Amino acid sequence: MSAVIVRNLPPVVHERLRYEAHHHHRSVNREIIAILEKELVRARPFELPPPVKPLVPIDGRRIAETIRKARDTRP
User: Fold this and answer.
1) How many domains does the chain have?
2) Domain with 35 in it
3) Is residue 58 a part of any domain in this protein?
4) What CA–CA distance (Å, rounded) separates 30 from 20?
5) CA dihedral 65, 59, 57, 70 (to 10 degrees)
6) pLDDT tens digits, residue range 53-71?
7) pLDDT digits (tens, 9 = 90+) for 3-54
8) 34 Cβ neighbours under 8 A, 6+ residues apart
9) Residue 68, in any domain of the structure
10) pLDDT at 8
11) Which of 17, 36, 48, 62 gets the highest tally of CB atoms within 10 A of its CB?
């Protein structure tokens, strides 16, 4: 099992944790674990979008040409 240390926990949060732990007949540690498990299960998994496919093939010449055109059209 991994351990986590929470520093500078506001007193009001600690008191609420103690209250909730007592209400659910748990230790403060077990209450924190229950809250984390509940919230992390509800969270949507992070997914990357599919890669974007270019409309035209990209090669070094096309990139250089695009940069040159952009430089030439600058005010």
Assistant:
1) 1
2) 8-44
3) no
4) 11
5) -20
6) 888 778 888 889 889 999 9
7) 999 999 999 999 999 999 999 999 999 999 999 988 887 777 778 888 888 8
8) 24, 26
9) no
10) 95
11) 17
